[in-house]
Fold each of these.
Amino acid sequence: MIYDLIVLGGGPAGYLAAERAGHAGLNTLLIEKRSLGGVCLNEGCVPSKTLLHSAKIYDYALYSKKYGITCESVSFDHQAVIARKNKVIKTLVTGIQMQLKKNKVTVVEGYGKILGKTREGYEIGVNDKTYIGSRLLIATGSAPVIPPIPGVKEGLEKGTILTNREILDIQKVPESLVVIGGGVIGLEMASYFNSVGSKVTVIEMLDHIAGNTDRDISNILMKNYERKGIVFQLHSKVTEIRKGEVVYEKDGQKISVQAEKVLLSIGRKPVIEGIGLENIGIEVQRGRIRVDERCKTNIPEVYAAGDVNGRSMLAHTAYREAEVCINNILGKKDIMRYHAIPAVIYTNPEVASVGETEETAKQKGIDFQVVNLTMKYSGRYVAENEDGDGICKLLLDKKYKKLIGVHMIGNPVSEIIFGAALMLETELKIDDIKELVFPHPTVSEIIREGIFNF
Ligand code: NAI
């Protein structure tokens, strides 16, 4: 049999593409080596949010006094939290299995490798069997970057150094945790383990945390976590990891910090090795599969979506890229746009942003105006965030009178940012945004409040 489409990898890009393709009537095969849902569902986005939700409830209980409630004998059961996390994953993986079945997608479990191309189509080998597809979508995702720092290899083997996969499954809260890399994974995990009692140190190479996040916002986030007891070592370079300690260099000095466990979260890289890209000549550029705006590779009828193309490396980008691939396969015009993809860090307080930061807008020579408001303009925020120091920053393109960036810190901005993304994506003019009605009282009103300052 020749499949209309073979999808390699069952993460957000792969499973959604397979679902959409099956729904459209394409005879589709999905190959996954581990578990449907990929890193996002099994060892990333969803499990980390499950853990963070428990930590948030625990935090509320511990500090409930400021909301007029007294909780006594509050305790945290990490193993129960992990068990619940596994239940959540199981529910969602089952949901994906059902969706794929409903859309008549054939799922094969095993490691898929591109073997070559014949006149009939692309040949993919899985478990000693060969499958043929007239089209191919590569969605093999990404893996953690493992640096050549002395002691890392041994630590990973011994289980003292963990990546996102292992840390989401540890059965005991470590007394001390050193997080290498103050990016999204590092901060979310630092947040959880700080809440549940570990002594957490974050070692970051740059002079700020949270990568490309607006600098005022990353500073507020860092101050919040310093108040909660996390130690940040910025401008610091890890040089060695020994048994029970991490050695790093800061201002020319060698310093060491105790660590029962170490989390390695210095970034992820596309999975491009061992999948046979060379067998059909797929072009790779700077460690990623090169794709055009339709997510097409240099080889006809071969697409690449999600982390493997390295364009944005976010699960929600992967979903959209998957749809772009399938629409193009179906002959519908569709292209990827990356300027209005929201980004969220699920710390407590949450951070959410979309579009240009002041830094990128300056680099691009855009003539822009900034409004920076305290979240306290929102009644709902004040009611629900005692001692909250959140802000909302809006960037307006002065020439075109449209919003080009929105950056927020405070709860629950993760649920609000899509509205800002919609404004950017549809290029709403500022005067049109002023006519929108926001529900009251909500934290989202902060955007309306900010817009009126332009
Ligand atoms: P990241 O790229 O977000 O952060 C890595 C950090 O490590 C950077 O700040 C970098 O300067 C630092 N670093 C690099 N080498 C270092 C070294 N040797 N010593 C000290 N610091 C060093 O990468 P992260 O956190 O591993 O996340 C990986 C991917 O997962 C990202 O692409 C992200 O988009 C995705 N992700 C997204 C989430 C979300 O949307 N909420 C949550 C978790 C992950």
Amino acid sequence: MVADKTADSSKSEREKENILTSTRTVVKEALDKLGYPDEVYELLKDSLRMLKVRIPIRMDDGSVKVFTGFRAQHNDAVGPTKGGVRYHPDVTEEEVNALAIWMSLKSGIVDLPYGGGKGGIICDPREMSFRELESLSRGYVRAISQFVGPTKDIPAPDVFTNSQIMAWMMDEYSRIDEFNNPGFITGKPIVLGGSHGRESATAKGVTICIEEAAKKRDFEIEGARIVVQGFGNAGSFLAKFLHEAGAKVVGISDAYGALHDPHGLDVDYLLDRRDSFGTVTTLFKNTISNQELLELDCDILVPAAVQNQITAENAAKIKADIIVEAANGPTSMEATKILTDRGKLLVPDVLASSGGVTVSYFEWVQNKQGYYWPEEEVEEKLYKVLKKSFETIYHTSQTRRVDMRLAAYMVGVRKMAEASRYRGWV
Ligand code: NAD
């Protein structure tokens, strides 16, 4: 048992180092293609600031536990940094650093007036009480309060953090600041200044990318055969939207297995039966594995679960014509090359999953204005932003003869590289 656990954690350490290395490799390639000198890469390969904090918390049993947290601010040449805070036992400084770079790229891709930031606390929220989680969230805000703020760095939800945690953090910041400051954080409950459409924004953004990709390959969403890996927040909303658009969802999965029906699954029933962790396959017999799911005969494959799912080992067996990455980092660099060489259209994570940060930006704008938009207005604005970004990146990939991932990185780095140059930083 112990040996397995050690092997697992060193694998996850390696994966995180790989995320940082592969992110830097593509950033370098993108800057080279755009003709920027090495000094721009030297600036952008790391976060400008990385804060490490220690947060002592009185636990329910009376003992004190000291948690470690991070906040990274990658580049604020364009505007304040922005990005989620994750609570997870495997959080590392390297991972937070890489994810902050990704947030900069996403903001550049959807043309938001932000740079990228990210935060994380090493903890397991599944083993903590509500009171302990509240103390930790408030303690984290006290520890980083001088470093963040609505015009400096704006946090948001991420893995294992939600609107309740955002509400506690906003309340703590407002107490420190001595006035109500909803623009400090996004992903809040609607009654505290959250935006309509925030919860389903990532899946809406992925759906828009799928529709645009299908147009490029000349087929209709209605009747298209779709496979979605993961049935959590992103995957379940996505299956719902695609089902409503007339697509045939022929496969879905969770951490425990996968379901397949070539005639189309009963999506409404699955949505009704899934639990809050996105688990549903445990209710069924005759499930298949996640590996089998990825290799199913279908038109569109959407990895919406975890990283490193499509690798050099299975990329040659993927049958889908279009792969749209809703998850962060589901495809390795080797697999990206194999899929591209096979003529597949791969829509990268930094574009496909940028609906969340786009609606977070809308939330921040609404907080600044004190004027709130109805859901239709949020959706209309999101559609315009993502359609334009998809088109720009597709056009870049065609004219510069590069895959969509490199094209997205080229679009993503350009604005912060330009802003850094105008400011005289490089
Ligand atoms: P979630 O925790 O709500 O759901 C994750 C789903 O993946 C669950 O169904 C879980 O059972 C399944 N899963 C976990 N491990 C798995 C494994 N090894 N194999 C197959 N399935 C597995 O998470 P989410 O919010 O839906 O996020 C999913 C992905 O999308 C993540 O990579 C996340 O970073 C990315 N993403 C999400 C958002 C968002 O707003 N939710 C925004 C941007 C990116």
